[in-house]
Amino acid sequence: MRPSGWTRRDGLFGLASLGLSMGWPSAHAGQLEEPLADSVRGALRLSIESAGPPNHELLPKASQDRYARWERDLAPRLAPRKNHPLEREEFLRTIWYYAVRQGLDPTMVMGVVQVESAFRKYAISSVGAIGYMQVMPFWARLIGNGDPGMLFQLNANISFGCTILRHYLDRERGDTFLALGRYNGSRGRAPYPNSVYAAMRRWAHPDA
Fold first, then answer.
1. Degrees to nearest 5, angle at CA 95 with 190 and 15
2. Residue of 13, 10, 29, 58 whose CA lies nearest to 126
3. Which domains does the chain have, with CATH numbers?
4. Residue ranges in the chain modelled with pLDDT below 50
5. 149-199: per-residue pLDDT in tens?
6. How far is CA 196 from CA 65, 81, 166, 183, 205, in A?
7. Rounded to an integer, what distance in angstroms lies between the CA atom of residue 24 and that of residue 181?
8. What Cα–Cα distance (Å) separates residue 85 from each residue in 78, 95, 98, 156?
9. What is the pTM of this model?
10. How many whole angstroms from its chain centre is CA 75?
11. Which residues, in sequence order, are bridge partners of residue 124?
């Protein structure tokens, strides 16, 4: 599927055509915009704002120690997709920080990123989902600053993606199959959750 011109709707002219010219892959369907109670929207917005930029010193000491082992294990495996050591380190630190902040398994977040964008920062789907975790632009309006372009930033994209996935897990009472389906807009259907589970096995680590 080819990236469509969603950016005309959101005021980011030309990004979709740029994505096509660079050969970015389209991701899956994307999250569906659903009514949110004011209290839920406020809680999600607060979760985004309070997380701030990645700062592992804000995490428990045990988490920091686990991250060091996790990063040493995963960095070589990530090298084919992120060939610069500093880029790999920044990416993995960001994944770990926002996943832990939301009580998520970092390996699941890695699986979502692989399936959604193949680790491509500027991926745009045919329905307008953006970046590593293919976050739909409407989330910027609901719980962000209103600018969907922010979702191309590493910190913002992973923070939003983890917050949204946590929200769906809460709605589905911890059922990862249903939550992943909801994240993809295909709740109750197996292909997307099964793809994420398969990707997770690639990034499996005992400390995650």
1. 80
2. 29
3. 6-202 (1.10.530)
4. 1-27
5. 999 999 999 999 999 999 999 999 999 999 999 999 999 999 999 999 999
6. 26, 17, 15, 11, 15
7. 23
8. 10, 15, 20, 21
9. 0.86
10. 18
11. 130
